[in-house]
């Protein structure tokens, strides 16, 4: 049999389609007719953000929507659907058609902590969504009011143990990643800390700047300006490496707590059963966005380090974090009926 260039291309395409179908099966992704593949996207795409405007999840979504829309040739419209720590928005995406026109901005607090916190959850993190890819890690930071009797992480641990009732630390809410990070810090160091939940990180920062509470665990993006102008004292960041936007602030490991890494992350998901060709295209274009210098810089100013990668890598990370945070939530006794 003679193999011509055109027949060789057909064989290569068939092999690629077969490989894509096998990979897609493990990610909740379905095959798609060739005609439909060529047509997508034929209209604007909705990107559901399960939180109110203004936070890190919302602002990062708007950066991705802008650059992804340029590459796809269709507008990507951010649609805020807040409520129940992100559960309402994610349930909406779960129930949407798996046609590539509804995506979700996935936040680790909602996807891998809520399943352990809420007695009833309207979605299954690994079964109800198709993985598109991770956007990046949002570095978390522990900051103190300058008048608080703690200048370093070592001070915090020592002072907290001799303070009746412990030292209070604020976060954006019960069960969020900053809350879990604080509980993990207590478990790892024996620090005597009391959690003060807020309805958002902004109010928590306002109260620590004003001196109502001594400490706040939050995203670098929100605290950055206050640290720079001296209104907050940065104790440590809980990422594996120092934050590029606050390079003088040590990591928790450098400050004396080995292997203490708690990042918050954001990524893209779609309803389960997303056609393989659309999933592949979305991952390819998302990675192109995350490798774009302008987009990376915009995300960096929000405290997010872009992390291009495969859909499978993102799904595996969600699975690992689901298993990782369960014991911490249980030990801290965090539960919402």
Overview of the structural elements:
The protein has helices at residues 5-25, 34-39, 56-72, 87-94, 108-117, 153-161, 177-189, 201-210, 220-228, 276-290, 293-301, 311-332; strands at 29-30, 45-49, 76-80, 102-107, 129-138, 140-144, 167-171, 193-197, 215-219, 233-237, 264-271, 274-275, 304-306. It has twelve helices and 13 strands. Helix 3 links the parallel strand 2 (45-49) and strand 3. It is globular, with a radius of gyration of 22 Å. The strands form three sheets. The chain has a six-stranded mixed sheet, with helices on both faces. By secondary structure, it is α/β, with parallel strands linked by helices. The protein starts with a helix and ends in a 5-residue tail after the last helix. The chain has two domains: 42-137 and 264-332, D-Maltodextrin-Binding Protein, domain 2; 140-237, D-Maltodextrin-Binding Protein, domain 2 (3-Layer(aba) Sandwich), CATH 3.40.190.10.
Summarize the structure.
This protein is an alpha/beta fold and 337 residues long.
Keywords:
six-stranded mixed β-sheet, 337 residues, globular, alpha/beta, 13 strands, D-Maltodextrin-Binding Protein, domain 2, 2 domains, five-stranded mixed β-sheet, 12 helices, single chain, 44% helix
What fraction of residues sit in β-strands?
15-25%
CATH class (first level) name of the largest domain: Alpha Beta
Quaternary status: single chain
Mean pLDDT: 88
Broad structural category: alpha/beta
Low-confidence stretches: 5-9
Topology pattern, helix = H, strand = E: HEHEHEHEHEEHEHEHEHEEEHHEH
In the CATH hierarchy, what is the superfamily of the largest domain? Bordetella uptake gene, domain 1
Helix content: 40-55%
CATH topology of the largest domain: D-Maltodextrin-Binding Protein, domain 2
Whole-Å distance between the termini?
67 Å
**Over the alpha carbons, how many angstroms does the gyration radius reach?**
22 Å
Total of DSSP H or I helical runs spanning 4+ residues: 12
CATH architecture of the largest domain: 3-Layer(aba) Sandwich
* Overall spatial form: globular
How many β-strand runs? 13
Biggest beta-sheet profile: 6 strands, mixed
Q: What is the total number of structural domains?
A: 2
Order of the strands making up the biggest sheet: 3-2-4-11-5-13
């Amino acid at each position: 049999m003679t193999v011509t260039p055109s027949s060789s291309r057909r064989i290569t395409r068939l092999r690629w389609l077969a490989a894509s179908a096998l990979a897609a099966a493990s990610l909740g992704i379905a095959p798609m007719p060739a005609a439909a593949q060529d047509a997508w996207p034929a209209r604007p795409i909705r990107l559901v953000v399960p939180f109110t405007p203004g936070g890190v999840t919302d602002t990062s979504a708007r950066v991705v929507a802008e650059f992804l829309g340029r590459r796809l040739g269709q507008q990507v419209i951010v649609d805020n659907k807040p409520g129940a720590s992100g559960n309402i928005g994610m349930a909406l995406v779960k129930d949407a058609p798996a046609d590539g026109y509804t995506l979700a901005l996935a936040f680790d607090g909602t996807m891998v902590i809520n399943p352990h916190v809420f007695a009833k959850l309207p979605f299954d993190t690994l079964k109800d969504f198709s993985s598109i890819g991770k956007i990046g890690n949002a570095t978390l930071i522990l900051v103190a009011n300058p008048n608080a009797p703690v200048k370093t992480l070592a001070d915090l641990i020592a002072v907290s143990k001799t303070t009746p009732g412990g030292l209070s630390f604020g976060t954006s809410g019960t069960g969020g990643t900053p809350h879990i990070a604080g509980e993990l810090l207590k478990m790892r160091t024996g620090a005597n800390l009391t959690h003060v939940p807020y309805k958002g990180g902004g109010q928590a920062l306002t109260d620590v700047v004003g001196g109502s509470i001594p400490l706040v665990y939050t995203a670098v993006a929100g605290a950055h300006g206050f640290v720079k102008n001296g209104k907050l004292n940065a104790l440590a960041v809980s990422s594996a490496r120092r934050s590029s936007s606050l390079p003088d602030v040590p990591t928790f490991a450098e400050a004396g707590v080995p292997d203490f890494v708690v990042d918050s992350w954001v990524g893209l998901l779609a309803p389960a059963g997303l056609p393989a060709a659309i999933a592949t295209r979305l991952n390819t274009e998302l990675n192109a966005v995350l490798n774009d210098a302008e987009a990376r810089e915009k995300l960096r100013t929000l405290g997010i380090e872009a992390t291009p990668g495969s859909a499978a890598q993102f799904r595996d990370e969600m699975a690992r974090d689901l298993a990782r945070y369960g014991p911490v939530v249980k030990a801290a006794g965090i539960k919402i009926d």
